[in-house]
Amino acid sequence: MFLSRIVLRDLDSIDSPAASMASSKKLVTRDEWERKLRDVKIRKEDMNRLVMNFLVTEGFVDAADKFRVESGTQPDIDLATITDRMEVKRAVQSGNVQEAIEKINDLNPTILDTNPQLYFHLQQQKLIELIRAGKINEALEFAQEELAPRGEENQVFLEEIEKTVALLVFEDIKNCPYGELLDVSQRLKTASEVNAAILTSQSHEKDPKLPSLLKMLIWTQNQLDEKAAYPRINNFSTAALEDPAI
Amino acid sequence: MELDSLREAFDRVIEKRASSSAKAQEVIDQIVSEVEQAITKMQMMNTDSMGTADHSSILAELKAKLNELAPLNQLEGCQKELNVALSKYLKLLEKSFSPDISKAYRNVDFEASTINSIIANHFYRQGLFDLGDSFVRECGESDGAHLKLQFQEMYSILEAMQVRNLQPALSWAAKNHDQLLQNGSMLELKLHQLQFVEILTKGSRDEALKYARTHLVPFASLHKAEIQKLMACLLWADRLDQSPYAEFMSSTHWEKLAEELTHQFCSLLGQSSESPLGVAVSAGFQGLPTLLKLTTVMAAKKQEWQAMKQLPVPIDIGPEFQYHSVFVCPVLREQSSDENPPMLMPCGHVVSKQSIMKLSKSSSRPFKCPYCPSEAVASQCKQLHF
């Protein structure tokens, strides 16, 4: 935010004296750009807190603990709760849905009660795991007792049930129109939903701040593109400045 | 309108007949009663050993009472009322209906064997196989039995469906799989759907799942939505009638499917799904009032309508009897006919032959298209056939 504000202000001041050049883009050289960047001061403590926020939100417990020791930055939540959350996430990602449900209820019994959609998706994932394991009768019994009543109440749930149960009609369930339900990505999707719900229940943002900051950088660059040619960052993993096109 | 008057007159006739009948019965009862009384008196007198003079007095008394009753006068009154009502009804009938519809009949020479063949196939088509056989035998036709076997097959399939047996229909659909696909018909999938629901509700969930894996999978890629709903039915196997899919159990599916099968069956035979004889008779019924009116007008004008090739008035019998396209010439504003067919000009526009004759001065000169700047000569124009 500060960065974009400073840059925009400087560009405005540059444009003002030369009114006749207002219609064309202002060219900023790499040397000039780098000099302006050096004038922007960011405190190390703020950077450390950003990194800690990312590690904590994404559940990198060991890394967060080491980072705490080395940098002296304190996490804003108890790291033990991260461990619990990651165990839940790992359980879902490995297909142990029942274990995940039990752990969620241990953490906070109201999470699933206040999230019917999350609970439905966990039940759906459990059905998927039963089908994957080839336990057809068990899958049908489970779906009949647990999922069918929810489908009667909610049309969207009903449609998801239809897709999931349709897996049963195929002998070769890997290569069928609904095969993506059996992908690891389906587990990851459910796991992410669980993670977000737990974070919300713990009164924390469910998304880390660092990606938000990167998104803001992208937005700011798009705004600047309309006014000036300047050294742009295209590769965010290296953050290398590209020379502007003349 | 007219029918209301007819109904009223008919009801009045019924009313008068009923009252007349009741009156007659009453009069007869009175006469019988008087005669029985006289007989009783005579029998009592016989026991007293009195003379025949007393019998005479009883008879005289009976005669006087019967004269007093005046039964004929009573019956005459009722009978007259009935006759008046009946007479009015007959007049109304004659006014409302044409008593002689044969006036609208034109003597067209049909080939007897063609008519017989049409009638025989009509019987077979209606499932009246014994009647059809008798007809074929009596009129000496042997070709008429050509479609009998096919319609027997169709009716055996339909009869099986009426008792919830889909096996003959499924066999037929599988045998004609490619043609049904070409027709864009979903009959085969629908039959399997019905069978699946039957097995699910009357058999077991496991059998239904096996059936789906065998017979529904081939349709899965093109009909995902249908397959999804059918598989979800497995979760409500024991109470499908209370599930979101209760309508799958509706008996209307069987009726619609029987209609669809009839339609496709006839289509694959190259036949219409309606009986040609039935269609002709229905169309005739609809056209009859106009024709009767026409004959009356023609008679008044001393014209012979039997000889004319084309009717002077249009006969509208509804869109369900429209089988061919109709071309109306934009120049003459007349419908095309055999003598005046539609002609396609080189520019692509169409007018009637008479228009071209007129425009080209009897084929002698090039003429301009009424629609566009193109010029043509009569020999370049081709007759259109719909």
Brief digest:
The complex is a heterodimer of chains A (about 250) and B (about 375). Chain A is mainly alpha-helical and about 250 residues long.
Provide a descriptive summary of the structure in words.
The complex is a heterodimer of chains A (246) and B (386). Chain A has 246 residues and is mostly helical. Among the domains of chain A are: 44-76; 80-201, no CATH class. Chain A contains twelve helices and four strands. Chain A has helices at 2-15, 30-39, 44-57, 61-71, 79-93, 97-107, 110-113, 116-132, 136-153, 155-165, 184-201, 209-225; strands at residues 26-27, 228-229, 232-233, 241-242. Chain A has a two-stranded parallel sheet. In chain A, strands 3-4 form a two-stranded antiparallel sheet. Mean pLDDT of chain A is 79; it is low at 12-23. In chain B, α6 runs antiparallel to α12 and α9 (187-202) packs antiparallel against α12 (252-269). Chain B is 60% helix and 3% strand. In chain B, β3 (367-368) and β4 (375-376) form a beta hairpin. Chain B is mainly alpha-helical. In chain B, the strands form two sheets. In chain B, strands 2-1-5 form a three-stranded antiparallel beta sheet. Chain B has a two-stranded antiparallel sheet with strand order 3-4. The model of chain B has no long low-confidence stretch (mean pLDDT 82). Chain B has helices at 2-48, 52-69, 71-96, 112-125, 129-139, 148-162, 167-175, 177-182, 187-202, 205-216, 224-232, 252-269, 276-300, 353-359, and strands at 342-344, 350-352, 367-368, 375-376, 382-383. Among the domains of chain B are: 1-45 and 53-94; 145-267, no CATH class; 326-381, Herpes Virus-1, CATH 3.30.40.10.
Measured as a percent range, the helix fraction of chain A is 55-70%
Fraction in helix of chain B: 55-70%
Query: What is the structural class of chain B?
Result: mainly alpha
Biggest sheet strand line-up of chain A: 1-2
Characterize the quaternary organization of these chains.
Answer: heterodimer
Number of strands of chain B: 5
User: Per the principal axes of the C-alpha atoms, what is the gross shape of chain A?
Assistant: elongated
Strand portion of chain A, in percent? Answer: under 5%
In what range is the share of β-strand residues of chain B? under 5%
Give the distance, in angstroms, between the N- and C-terminal Cα atoms of chain B: 41 Å
- CA(first)-CA(last) distance of chain A: 27 Å
Largest beta-sheet details of chain A? 2 strands, parallel
Order of helices and strands of chain B: HHHHHHHHHHHHHEEHEEE
Radius of gyration over C-alpha positions of chain A, nearest whole angstrom? 25 Å
Q: Of all protein chain pairs, which has the greatest interface, and how many residues does each chain bring to it?
A: A-B, 22 and 21 residues
Q: Which residues of chain A form runs of ≥5 with pLDDT under 50?
A: 12-23
Largest sheet report of chain B: 3 strands, antiparallel
Our Rg estimate of chain B from Cα atoms comes to: 37 Å
What structural class do the secondary elements of chain A suggest?
mainly alpha
